[in-house]
Amino acid sequence: MSRFSSVLVANRGEIALRVIRTARAMGYRTLAVYSEADAGAPHIRAADDAACIGPAPATQSYLSIEAILKAAKELGAEAIHPGYGFLSESAEFARACDDAGLVFIGPPAEAIALMGNKAEAKRRMLDAGVPCVPGYEGEDQSEAALQAAAEKIGAPLMVKAAAGGGGRGMRLVEDLKTLPKALSAAASEAENAFGSGELILEKAILRPRHVEVQVFADDHGTTVHMGERDCSVQRRHQKVVEEAPCPVMTPALRADMGAAAVEAARAIGYRGAGTVEFLLGDDGQFYFLEMNTRLQVEHPVTELITGLDLVELQLRVAEGRPLGLTQDDIRLDGHAIEVRLYAEDPAKNFLPRTGQIRLCEPAQSEGLRFDMGVETGQEISPFYDPMIGKMIAWGPDREAARRRLVGGLKDSLLIGLTTNQRFLIDVLEDATFVDGQATTAFIDEHFPKARRAAPEATLQDAACAAALLYRLERDTHHAASLGVPAELLNWASGGPMPTRFVMGAGDTRFDVTVTPDEDGLLRIEAGETRHVIEVLTLTDTRCTLRLDGKSRSMGYIWQDGGAITLSRDGRVHDFQNQIALAASAEDAAGSGTIAAPMPGLVLEVSVAVGAKVAKGDVLAVIEAMKMQHEIRADMDGVVAAVDAADGLQVSAGDRLLQIDGDG
């Protein structure tokens, strides 16, 4: 037995929170580590104690074995859970934990090393009788050997890095004439990503399903599988949507695939949680792809259909206790689907995005589970994976789970930076996915760049934004007034008083007027277009408006200076009232203090202390609400102070520069 009472989680974000939650429930003392960039992260507060392990770059913190072991010693850890990513599949880290007298909550180092090399793993699986994709996994890595193997395999084929995953070091070769270029590119990418340029070749199984089987083994001779997960919906060979069970699985196929997965684990003396991944062809044939020697990102879907806590089982097995389950004990109930919420721009080839999450408010509904690693006000930094978290839905059948997940995504608020929220909704509502027919080619075939583009704001969106701004500003003024009865709101002795708003959204402007009537309705006019809006409910982050007789619920953030962001059904639009912006600048004219008229990012400061400026000169440029705003001098003078700098995030009212008019 390797009993322990304290667990250090050598990771960050949602997986750190996930492990800490179960470990604390089991009575363990929980310990966290964090980089300087994560000093205010939620997983630190969730743990009983925590230690900083270095600067923001992962190589100096979360990937530093020395730093983590030092923290473990300082905090009094007895066991280490690696989570996923970072060091979770590092045989060196597992050995270092063993050498330091720490229990590594994962498989033996030998199993990690073996399955971490695709070539060696495939050779071992072939010896164990596990079905494998025809290919080449030889030690001779010369171009001549690879070329000869490729000609024998035939096109199309896949070139893959032997030492890695996640789509890096991988190339599809559809014509053998392009093989030399693919070999060179894949080897270079693999060397940079994994420190090894070793490659394998495999026959390309076009449009397969990516199906993986969850396995678990203890030190008492028990190895079981817990059903499968379909992870076919991918972008750039990285998973986006996962579900369990697989939509096309049959009992016979599950039995065969599960048996192959169990045999793969037994063949390498496995212990703990692992995942054996397969490619499933449309002919029902399946082939070994790789084995992940850790807990998977998508493990919640298995938990929801089996009722098992996989982290709890990991801790149990790590202590040397029996798994306590047989294959007959495992039953699959219902269906679960998970999506990964990323800070990325689907329209720009899923380019990662950074910035502050101004509002993170997941939906609350039956059958939904959120594994989130961030919260309102937190920064998404460029140093780590941009995954914000995961939303998982369970239902008695696949369609019920899908509907719940779509509803949860539409009702969740993620405001402050570009995310894939709306893209995920579109994926889940696509007819091919609804029918359960998505393969690994699904996103490429069904979501070209044009379909991934964020929708432009409409006049109706602008009307709602203007109506909400009117109501919020009215309520603010009323709260600050002295003795004005509520019944006088929207009343004026001269009759209805229209208020003009010029709502800017990107490069588009919507010129509208808002006129209240005695019944509290807001009449919106934009040229010849008319709308009637009634504010039905209003909280700090959500509202329900009735637009021309139809209710629509949405989330919002309101900022000083006429800036408002609306979020509805995963679509987020930033609006800026240009009239308020101009008025703000005019009010500050002549003071010499140049302040930010709104929250934003300083793109450029064009003057320095001592520079002579004239009224109207451009001093700086701020990006806010997806628009660039020139900040101009409000008087003649000399620049006495510069507080702004390129790349600085500023709030409304922050001083940017000071001009001395006596110069």
Describe the fold and architecture.
With 663 residues, this protein is an alpha+beta fold. It has 5 domains: 6-105, 3-Layer(aba) Sandwich (Rossmann fold), CATH 3.40.50.20; 134-203, ATP-grasp fold, A domain (Dna Ligase, domain 1, 2-Layer Sandwich), CATH 3.30.1490.20; 209-452, D-amino Acid Aminotransferase, Chain A, domain 1 (2-Layer Sandwich), CATH 3.30.470.20; 459-577, Glycoprotein, Type 4 Pilin; 588-660, OB fold (Dihydrolipoamide Acetyltransferase, E2P), CATH 2.40.50.100. It contains 18 helices and 39 strands. The strands form 9 sheets. The chain has an 8-stranded antiparallel β-sheet with strand order 14-13-10-11-12-15-22-20, with helices on both faces. It has an 8-stranded antiparallel barrel with strand order 24-25-26-27-28-29-30-31. Helix 4 (91-99) runs antiparallel to helix 5 (109-115) and helix 12 runs antiparallel to helix 13 (421-429). The longest helix is centred in the C-terminal third of the chain and has 22 residues, at 459-480. The protein is globular, with a radius of gyration of 29 Å. The model has no long low-confidence stretch (mean pLDDT 91). It comes from Lutimaribacter saemankumensis. This is Geranyl-CoA carboxylase alpha subunit. Residues 582-660 form the Lipoyl-binding domain. Residues 3-448 form the Biotin carboxylation domain.
